[in-house]
């Protein structure tokens, strides 16, 4: 009898242990944000990036994810990224995410927005983010590129979808310039009116009854010819590709990629 009770307790304990281990595994998959298979980040950089991604991710209610690889095994970086996200989303249930993928073998980077981020970080905004991080990518400052991806993407997602976050009309210096011009115009108008109006004109001193034009003459003095060189577009920098699409698992996303 005692052996039977002990055996049952052992079975129940093992059962709960398996459940707990499964829970820990699911939790680890859910919490993991950085998949640095290419080893581009130091331990300190990875910890700093994780804290930053968690902070901004909570503000935007999305997951900021990072994937690096030495090879996409014959796939395009877009297809490799899509398969990775399908697998992660199936296991964690997380659909709202911003995913930056780097293939160091082909020197390509791809940024994608899934779920709600597909709308708040559309293809145009993704291009702006890529413009920001490409100098860091080319100089191999991957930690800096990852940080700027989080901060810049989060800032853009604060704006209403469809609005260009880099529009001149949204810049503080532009608002300040307009305010100064308006203030200068008002002050100038006040100073102009302080001295009273001038009522005399050149016509005041001309006797039109006894004045007339005696002769007219036109003389050609010189001719000046200027030439300007038409600039040619020689290109430069990595080419862009992508624009969003659908993963193999049927998840739509906004996206854009560059070579570096």
From TrEMBL:
Residues 34-150 form the TPM domain. The keyword DNA repair does not apply. Residues 215-260 are annotated as: Disordered. This is TPM domain-containing protein. Pfam families: TPM_phosphatase. Keywords: Membrane, Signal, Transmembrane, Transmembrane helix. Residues 1-28 form the signal peptide. The chain crosses the membrane at residues 173-192. Residues 234-260 have a biased composition (Gly residues). The keyword Transmembrane helix applies.
